[in-house]
Amino acid sequence: MATTIVQLTDLHLRPRGLPALRVVETNMFATRAVKAVRALSPAPDAVVVTGDVADTGDPREYAVAKELLSALPMPVYVMPGNHDSAREMRTAFADWPGVRDADADSLCYAVDIGDLRLVTLDTSVEGKPYGHLGEAQLAWLDAALGEASDRPTVIALHHPPIATGIAHMDRSRLRDSEALAEIVSAHPQVQRIIAGHVHRVVLAPFAGTEVLILPGVAHQVGLDLEPEAPAQVVLEPRAYGIHSWTGEGLVSHMAYVEAFPGPFPFSPGEGVSWPGQ
Ligand SMILES: [Fe+2]
Ligand SMILES: [Fe+2]
Fold first, then answer.
1. For the chain, how many structural domains are there in total?
2. Ligand whose nearest atom lies closest to the CA of 80
3. Which residue, among 48, 59, 140, 43, has the nearest Cα to 99 in the 3D structure?
4. Domain assignment of residue 275, yes or no
5. Sorting pLDDT into bands at 50, 70 and 90, what band is 1?
6. Gap from CA of 45 to ligand 2 centroid (Å)
7. At what angle do helices 177-185 and 134-147 cross, to 10 degrees?
8. Which range has the worst mean pLDDT, 70-84, 95-109, 139-153, 199-213?
9. How many degrees, rounded to 5, is the angle at CA 56 between CA 51 and CA 58?
10. What does residue 135 show for φ and ψ, rounded to 5 degrees?
11. Any idea what the CATH number is for the domain that residue 221 is in?
């Protein structure tokens, strides 16, 4: 039986009735994502939200988040992004799994989910768009990975430790990615690092494993690889991740929130067969 974690990212929730960035009805989109996850069969074992839960860190946004995410019947693990307030999140989610056992100084924690271990990191820096872990959290990570070297592990964080080529997003990537790479490369049980922040799908190698960034459940960042590309959002299809440990490896799917035409059964048509059949 596979162990499956769903990843939702970049909800950017607002106080009830307010859009994000003037145009994005993030609360409505996040509600649709939660509905899509509730409909998954088989149901995932857990959900992890890789930051930017709120849009401004307003306590009213976390009230919306708690109500919305409480509709998920499985454990939900949250971590802050640059749009969050780690302090407000810790208060709002104080009794939620993971957060209640989090490190005193950073909102980082490790939990076992079926055959997998999920390690969440807090890359947020109060008042700054970029990400940073710092020595204390890196030491905590090294110890947390050392405690369970035989368990396949997923590291979840908001700011990716790689450059994507989208210049305005790369300026706010994780600053101490080299120090993170040194630790990750010493713990080969790390199967994947999953991230958000960039609001689109990006895959890149990192420290003997890979970093997978997934789209947001609301708005996306435009794919513009020009060095002076302006920061703009686009309403491309909303998506989330399904990460399954199969016993052979960690298989990651990107799933769309919205429904599309189909499914149509595989068949070439009445009275026709494909070669070899
Ligand atoms: Fe975001
Ligand atoms: Fe972000």
1. 1
2. 2
3. 48
4. no
5. confident
6. 25
7. 10
8. 95-109
9. 105
10. -60, -45
11. 3.60.21.10
Cα separation, 25 vs 174, in Å, equals 28
Query: Which-ligand-closest: CA of 10?
Result: 1
Does residue 276 belong to any structural domain of this protein?
Answer: no
At 62 the three-state DSSP class reads helix
Q: How far apart are CA 161 and CA 202, in angstroms?
A: 12
d(CA 93, CA 103): 14
Q: Is residue 264 in a domain?
A: no
Q: Which ligand is nearest to the CA of 55?
A: 1
How far, in Å, from the CA of 51 to the mean position of ligand 1?
7
CA of 11 to the centre of ligand 1 (A): 7
Is the separation of the CB atoms in 2 and 43 below 8 Å?
A: no
Q: Per-residue pLDDT tens for 24-55?
A: 899 999 999 999 999 999 999 999 999 999 99
Spell out a b/e string for 145-154, using b for 16 or more CB atoms within 10 Å of the CB, else e.
Answer: beeeeeebbb
Residue type, 158: H
User: Mean pLDDT for the chain?
Assistant: 96
Residue 234 lies in a domain: yes
